[in-house]
Design brief:
- By secondary structure, this protein is mostly helical.
- Helix content is about 45%, strand content about 5%.
- The strands form 2 sheets. The chain has a two-stranded parallel ribbon. Strands 3-4 form a two-stranded antiparallel sheet.
- Strand 1, helix 2 and strand 2 form a beta-alpha-beta unit.
- The radius of gyration is 25 Å and the shape is globular.
Length: about 260
């Protein structure tokens, strides 16, 4: 069944595709052809739309953001990828989440309540991932159970989490201090916190230290190393030439 995108997107999509052609926005193959026309939009219906460097879509006035919004109705699923930490303003984060799940994140005025309810859970997750906290004197010490329970109790006081069963179960059957010493268990516990997080169904965070033991390792062949080093040399040489040209064109001032 073809999705209903509303209105007539043909002209708008065509214009935006042309404007973003040289901005680094990677278009799916059906849209890359020079003969592609927006009237073929429904024939190119996407099962999965993946947008890398998705933080560039946070400004609703940008062309990339508008293009993302136009592709969303004709995509069965959408994944936004970004290595940029989620330290965005709430308005920016709301814009990205609205693009992923418009039905859930439809009101920015209530989005602040969600972030407020999540704060103790985020703190608890960060604490168990680090494995340490700072005491009142500013000295680092290992975490203990009370560091976690304090944040979980605070989270339970919020109306949006008051009846959460997973949170209630964690408070009734908390981990032991001996379990908190284990790094793998702390990663597991942080994952449980993030499942309670009210943004958990739409946002997932993966840190390198959490997947270090299962990271992908491959052997690099000598030819690949040679190619890489050649590319780096070309980039550096080109940069030095451009830098020299800029410097030689700068006006000279007499002392």
């Amino acid at each position: 069944m073809k999705p209903d995108v509303g209105g007539n997107p043909v002209k708008e999509i065509s214009e935006i595709v042309m404007k973003t052609a040289n901005t680094g926005f990677f278009l799916p193959k059906p849209f890359q052809s020079s003969t592609w026309c927006a009237s073929n939009l429904f024939d190119a219906y996407l099962d999965l739309l993946i947008i890398d460097e998705a933080h560039y879509l946070r400004n609703p006035e940008s062309m990339t953001s508008k293009l993302g919004n136009l592709f969303r109705p004709v995509s069965e699923c959408m994944v936004l990828l970004s290595a940029t930490p989620i330290q965005l303003r709430s308005r920016d984060l709301f814009q990205l989440l609205n693009l992923v799940d418009e039905s859930t994140f439809d009101r920015q005025d209530s989005f602040g309540d969600i972030l407020e309810a999540n704060r103790p859970l985020v703190r608890a997750s960060d604490i168990v991932r680090r494995g340490s906290v700072l005491d009142e004197a500013g000295n680092k010490r290992d975490i203990n159970l009370e560091d976690i329970l304090t944040n979980l109790r605070e989270a339970q006081l919020h109306p949006l989490l008051r009846d959460n069963r997973q949170l209630k179960h964690l408070l009734e059957t908390p981990p032991t201090n001996s379990e908190l010493i284990d790094r793998d268990y702390r990663a597991y516990l942080a994952n449980r916190f993030e499942k309670i997080n009210l943004l958990g169904h739409a946002v997932t965070r993966t840190r390198k230290r959490d997947v270090h033991s299962i990271r992908v390792v491959r052997d690099v062949i000598p030819e690949e190393i040679e190619t890489y080093n050649t590319e780096i040399k070309l980039i550096r040489d080109n940069f030095m030439v451009k830098t020299y040209n800029i410097i030689t064109k700068l006006p000279k001032y007499k002392s």
